[in-house]
Every structure is written in C-alpha cells, then in structure tokens.
Amino acid sequence: MNLHQAEFNLSPELTRLFSVFVLLGVAVMLVGLGMAPERVWPSLLLVSYFVLGMGLAAVVFIALQYVTNGAWGVAIRRVPEAMTVFILAGALGLAVVFLAHRSLYSWTAAAHDAGNTAAWFKRFWLTWPFFLARAVVYLLVWIAFARAIARNSQLQDRDGDVAYTHRNARLSALFLVVFGITLWLASYDWLMSLEPEWFSTIFGMYSFSGLFASGIAAIIIFAVALQKLGPLEGILREDHLHDLGKLLFAFSTFWAYIWFCQYMLIWYTDIPEETGYFVKRMQGTWRPLFLLNFMLNWTVPFLALLPRATKRTPSLLVKVAVIVLLGRWLDLYLIILPPFMGHKPSFGAWEFGLMLGAIGASALLFFRALRRAAPVPMRDPWLSDSLHHHQ
Amino acid sequence: MAEAYPVLHEPWLVGSKSPAQVTEDVCSTMERKPTAVWWIGLAVSLFFLGVGVVAVTYQIATGIGTWGLNNTVGWAFDITNFVFWIGIGHAGTLISAILFLFRQRWRTSVNRSAEAMTIFAVICAGIFPVIHMGRPWLAFWMFPYPNYRGPLWINFRSPLVWDAFAISTYFTISLVFWYLGLIPDLATVRDRTQSGWRRKLAGVLCLGWNSSYRTWQRYETVYMLLAGLATPLVVSVHTIVSWDFATAVIPGWHTTIFPPYFVAGAIFSGMAMVLTLMLVARKAMGLEDFITQRHVGAMCKIVLATSGIVALAYATEFFTAFYSGNPYEQFAFWNRAFGPMGWGYWIMVSCNIVIPQLLWSRRVRSSFVAVFVIAILVNVGMWFERFVIIVTSLHRDFLPSNWMSYTPTIIELATLAGSFGLFFTCFLLFCRFVPVIAIAEVKGILRHDQRHEAPRAHTLAGHAPAPATALRGSAEEVHP
C-alpha cells in the first residue's frame, strides 16, 4: 500500500469491458429511439436519475461526515468524492430527455386540468420554460456544491490546513439545507409530475430514502473494488465496512418505512385521486414486481445485514449492495414506467441495454475521477483516526 | 497533525476525573440534603399537580361536557396535550437507543435523565386518552380479550387501538431499558451506603450485581438487544400517533408526509425538553463538569436539524395543497395560516422554524441562557403545532353551516397545568433518589484521561507503553 500513489489506472481488460458496455448502451439507445421510443425515453430518464442520485448521495454522505465530525469515513472519502462526477453525467442524460422529448411529460400537451379553477397553481408550476429553468437551477447548485466540497478536500492534501475542514463543514451544512429543498422539488418535477393528477406529500422523502440507500450501496461496491484493485488495500478495514453496512441497513429500513407509510395511508383512506397511482402498479403482472421491489430494497438487505458477519465480510456486503442497487432500479422503474406501459410491464433489450450502458459509463467515469487526487485524503486531520477506526 | 485536535475538539467532560471521583460527584448529590431550590421546585410542581388532580376528578365526575368541544371540533385540547407529551418522550429513546447504536459517546452524560423524562412524559400522555374516553373505568375495554359483551371485540383496523398497543409497548420497553441501565449504578449506591432502607432497597433493585466480567458481558449484550428493540419503537409510536390523523379523510389531517414529519417533530420537541431539564439540572445539582458546552452544543445541533426537517414538512404540505388542484386542501391550508386561528399557525412557525435558526451561531449555542429560552420556545411552538393541526383542520368543516370555533375551558387549562405538575414532580423526585448521570457509562469514556499518565506509569514499571489503548480511543477523546 502506498498512500502517496496519486495515479491509479484501471486495468486494460476492465477498461475494455466497461467501454463495451457503454458502446452497447449507446447503440441500443440509438436503435431503440427509432424502434421503440416509448420505452427508451422513460428508460433514459430512469438511468439518468439513477446515476444522478448516486452522485447526490455521495455529496450527502460527505456532507454528513463533515457536519457530524464523523472521523471514521475520512480514509474512504475519496470514493464518494469521485462519485460526485455522476451528478454531471446524470444531468447530461436528463438534459437530453428534457430537450429532445418533452412529451414524456403529459402535462406539456395543452389544456391539462383545463376545467379546474383550483388547478391554477399547478398550471403555473408545470409550464415548460419554468420547469426547465428550475432544472437548471437544481443541477447547477448541486454541481457547484459538489465541486466546492471536493476541491477543498483536495486542496487540503497540499498543506494540511485545518481551515479547509472548517470551511467544508460550513459548506456541508449549507448544502444539506439547500439539498433538502431542491431534491424535494426536483423529485416532484421530474418523477411525480409524470402523472400530473397524482400527488403525495411524502414523495420527496421517499425519493431521498431510495437515493441515499443506493448511494451507500454504491460507495460500498466502489470501496471494496478499490481495496481489491490496490488503492485502498490495507486502508479499508472491516470496521469501515461494518459502519457502511450499518448505514445501508439503516437506510434500507428507512426506505421501507417511508414506502410503507405512503402505501398504507393511501390504501387506508382510499381516496380515488390518490389510489390511482397504486392501482396502476398493482394490477396484472405489475403485482409481482411491486412485491419484489419491497423484497429487494428491504426484506433481503434487512435479513442479510442483521448478523455482524455480513457487514464485515466484503464479498457478502457487496452482494447485498448489488441487491439494493437492483432494488433501486426496480423502484425507479415502478415510479417512472407504469404510465407508459399500461397493463403489462416489459423488460427487454431496451431496458437492459440502457442499464448496461449506465453501469459501464459510471465505472469509467468513477475510475477516471479518482485519478484527480490521491486515493486517500492524506493530510486530513482526522485521517489517523479513520485509519485506526474501531467499532 | 496532532496539533489540529484542540481546534477540532472540546473535551466531553471538564477536568481529568478518576472513576472514583465520578462516583463521588454523582452520588453525593443524592446523599446531601436537598437544596432550597429543589424544595421550591417540588412545592410548585406539587401545587400544579394538585390543581390537575382536582380538575381531572371534576371532569371525570361531571363528564367531558366540561370541555370546550362542540359538534365540529370534537378533538382539541386533550388530544393536543396527548400528542405533545408523547412527542416529548421521543428524545429520551433517541438518546438512549439510537445514539447508543451509533456509538455516540456524548449520550452517556444525558441518557439517564432523558430516559427518565421519556417515562414521565409517556405517563403524562397516557392520562389524556383515558380521560377522553369519558368513562375511564371502562378503559380496559381497549384490550382485546374474550368477553361477555357480545363478545364485543375492538376494531383492530383503528389507529386508536394501534396507539394503545404502541404506547403501552413503548412504555414497557422504555421502563425496562431505563432500569437495566440503572442496575450497575444501583449496585454503586448499595456499596456506598452504610446501612438503612436505602442500602436494602438498592441491594434488592440491583439484583445482586457483582461486577464480575461475566455479569458485565451479559449486561452489555442485553443492553444492545434492548437498544435494537427500542429503536423501531421510537419511530413507530409517533408514526402511529400521526396515523390517528392521517388515516382520516379530513383535509389538513390526511397527508402522507405525516409519519416522518411527526417523528422529526417529536425528536425536535423532546430534545428541546432534554435541554431545558439538563440546563436546570446541571446548575441545581452541580453537574457542570458532566454536562458541558459540548453536550449542549450537540443537542442544539439536533434541535436545529430536526427544525429543518419540520420546516421542510410545513413547506411540503402547503406547496402540495396548492399543487394538488384540490380546492378543499387549498382552503384548509390557507385557512390554517390566514383564517381566524392563523395566530396559532404563526406562533408555530416563529417558534419552530424562525427562532431555532439562531442556533446556527456558535455564540448562541454556547450561551446557556439563550439555549434555555430557545428550548422553551420550541416546546411552546410544538404544542401549538399539534393544536393547529387538530383544531384548525376541524373548525372549518366541508359545510360552512358546520363552522364553529373553539376555546378551551378553565378545566382543560388546569388539566394541562396538572400534567406539567406531574411531569416535574416525577423528575424532581428522580433527581433526588436515582443517580442522574449514568455513572458506569460515563466511566467508559474516561479512558483518555488516564492515558496521559498511563505511558509514564508503564515506563516506570518497566513495561512498554501499550499501543492498543492509544489506538482504541478515538481522537474525540484526546484532551487539548
């Protein structure tokens, strides 16, 4: 292990593999736009939001460490720092969807809610230029915060000045406030308004819960990969994994809690304007997926992560993290696609190709971003605590 | 790098205390004669408790017609008080269970009192639904058991029934958890006391604690399991309380964000109450070395964070009401802020959102007077939050011919005052008879203080310094 090893190069085989994934993804997308646009556009929204969400979760993770003085995660902080590149990647994907295919949002067609005088606010809120302007603001704000926080951390590598830690703590606190508001509104805009007649106040929280759980899962996978590939060898300890495993357990359970609250309250009150959302997702062949979603995102991770050993065994923990990421994909699939697919869900080359492309692109971007700085924040004042972290 | 620590850390405890000194400091407060402040506090609390007892007796004898309720506003003061007190309890379990699982060392100085506060708050809360039944002597009808009334079973689909189960479970676990944590300290009390009833009582209650390695190991295991079991309860109890409202179809009550929003609000108000009590206790009981700037700062940050979550929930509700395009939702929220009871809404917004923002400033966080005032205002605000949700959503019905107003009667006010009397009476008695600081747990974070001397002692004795101990302690504990 060499702390000062600044350059890390992904092996040519892996680079080739991920590049093939990306090429496949792009090819499938281009063919699909001609052959099955009604499936490819929503799928592109899905993978873009998925990738963007992992990047945002990474910033939230870093910010939480700074505001809570959490020393344990410092040694692996370069992992979420590199993951912030996903925000930009996701933003590009979203930009393509918004600019090239606005009819994905049914409300862009004229005269939605025309007869309803009480819908004046919705008509004002869901206007296309305003929608785009908001998207630009959310994305720019996120990118700016992510860059600033990662930059301070990298600058600290040079002189070890504690002022960077303080500065990042302040930035992080501010980010968390801004993030709370923007993610809530962004999830209303980009996901909830796909079905403009439906609304649920918990939706922002729901969107955050899945986003953060999947972000922790991704951090686990990337950290273990870096341990295997070299840069974090001897640095990432069982105790770090144990803590990450606990967080995954906690936020997977948080997701289940929020999911259940939304479902239970809508089921219980049975108000037609709310139940429509779930009716669509529980009819016919959607039902098994609806149940599988809960299994992948909660039942399996909950049971698997209860024993101490799972959280401390890298291979097991990574498997659980992969399940959570699959669950995240399915969760977003169930949020985004039902309005476009009608009675039957379908999963085929289009969905799979885009998923593969997203995986390849994420991996390539991540390992490229990692090279911007040393794999460990060498002069962070908390580093020695983190290296010797014990449960 | 090491010189950075003083900048990043303040110590948890003041002074390098030895374990014996911790025992001395905490136990001596119970062994001294109570101070005048304590007696005055107890007298005032007992007075209000007396007022409450009279009021409750009167309303049970007369019926709940003594309240200001009417056809439209069928839930008001009583349920507000119930939700308020249940909420207060949550911070105790958060500190004792969740922060334990997260290995937050600062909890050790406050967890004992916070857990005691939880128990007293749940007792206060439990009184209100029982009175609300109108015939509290039939309260046992809430429990499902084969009976000769038909048999008449409770409605298992009613959140009110879930409430009864959730709260009784919560109370039981909180009590057991609190008692379990007390056992080693009760043994300390037993060993320190020479004779008399106090020694006998502590001896019985500490279950023959012998401090052996095996006893400690079992104790730690049970403690962790109970912490794991108590954690979902923190969330579930207030979630179910929120379902009392959210499962209705009333605009302003039915909204899906209620569960997490209520839980955050509960921790917000509970943490403010812990701050209020701890700031008084540290002065009155001379515990300044144990409850320090850093504890108060940490709790202030939790108050600030939960205030933010609550603010986001208020904003979400208001925004979504307008986004929904549902005129009834829109009216409910507009009326909440600008209707005849709008003053309540603005008290709530100022106390819960605006004023806590002062805690962003380190200067405010380090002024105990400012924190004390803010903590009290937060609890005023949280009481009003429940009042606003309950009363303003009801008083303007779907039909304008049903519109009514609501004013509490003197009986209702006296009952609320009585619940505060009960709460503070219990808390003051607790301060006298039970170690207010978890002695055994605080000793667990003392390690670093001994470390200053440890290497020297080792060298003198001819041993190599033990690196393991040096690594074990995190930097959190390094003294400047």
Can you give a write-up of this model?
- The complex is a heterodimer of chains A (391) and B (480).
- Chain A is mainly α.
- Helices cover 75% and strands 0% of the residues of chain A.
- Chain A contains 16 helices and no strands.
- In chain B, helix 4 packs across helix 14 (368-395) and helix 5 runs antiparallel to helix 6 (159-192).
- Chains A and B meet through helix 5, helix 7, helix 8, helix 9 and helix 16 of A and helix 1, helix 8, helix 9 and helix 10 of B.
Topology:
The complex is a heterodimer of chains A (391) and B (480).
Chain A: H1 12-35, H2 37-67, H3 78-83, H4 85-100, H5 120-125, H6 128-159, H7 162-190, H8 203-229, H9 238-269, H10 272-282, H11 286-305, H12 308-312, H13 314-336, H14 338-341, H15 349-370, H16 383-387
Helix pairs in contact in A: 1-2, 1-15, 2-4, 2-6, 2-7, 2-8, 2-13, 2-15, 4-6, 6-7, 7-8, 8-9, 8-13, 9-11, 9-13, 11-13
Chain B: H1 5-8, H2 19-31, H3 36-62, H4 77-101, H5 111-132, H6 159-192, H7 197-205, H8 213-246, H9 258-284, H10 293-324, H11 327-338, H12 342-354, H13 362-365, H14 368-395, H15 410-433, H16 439-444, H17 447-451, H18 454-460, H19 467-472
Helix pairs in contact in B: 3-15, 4-5, 4-8, 4-9, 4-14, 5-6, 5-15, 6-7, 6-8, 8-9, 9-10, 9-14, 10-11, 11-12, 11-14, 12-14
Output the helix-strand order of chain B.
HHHHHHHHHHHHHHHHHHH
Summarize the amount of helix of chain A as a percent range: over 70%
**Strand coverage percent of chain B:** under 5%
- Number of helical runs of chain B? 19
CATH topology of chain B: Formate dehydrogenase/DMSO reductase fold
Overall body shape of chain B: globular
Number of strand segments of chain B: 0
Provide the domain count of chain B.
1
Report, as a whole number of angstroms, the end-to-end distance of chain B: 13 Å
The overall pLDDT average of chain A reads 90
Global structural class of chain B: mainly alpha
Question: Which percent bin holds the helix content of chain B?
Answer: 55-70%
Q: Biggest interface: chains and residue counts?
A: A-B, 51 and 43 residues
* Mean model confidence by pLDDT of chain B: 86
- Find the CATH superfamily of chain B: Formate dehydrogenase/DMSO reductase domain
The main pleated sheet of chain B reads as: none
